[in-house]
Specification:
Blueprint lengths: L9 H21 L8 H20 L2 E4 L5 E3 L5 E3 L2 H8 L1
Parallel strand pairs: 1-3
Antiparallel strand pairs: 1-2
Helix pairs in contact: 1-2
The structure holds zinc ion.
The site of zinc ion has 8 residues, from helix 3.
Length: about 90
Amino acid sequence: MNKKINKIDKFHHHEVIDRANMICDIIDTTLSNHPALSYIMQENIDKAIELLYNVSNRACGEYCNNCGSFEINNINIHFSVCEVCKNIQRR
Ligand SMILES: [Zn+2]
C-alpha cells in the first residue's frame, strides 16, 4: 500500500476497520481449521486474526464532525463534536 494521503479523515478510519475485518473473515473462512494445518500453524493463524482485530479496534474512536480530530476509544467509530469545538461554539 503506497497511496499518498494528504489528510486522514473519517472515511480512512472506516476503511481500516472494514479492511481489517474483511481480511479476518477471509482468513477465518478459507484458511483457519484447514485439515493440512499443524497445531503451530493454526496457532499462528489465530494470532494473525487477533492482531488484525486489534488493528480494527484501534481504528475505532470519536471523530469530530467540526474539526476532524480523532480520539481512539477502541469501542466503535462515533461522530460528534469534540470538547474543544463544543467550548468554542458555546462562546
Ligand atoms: Zn473538534
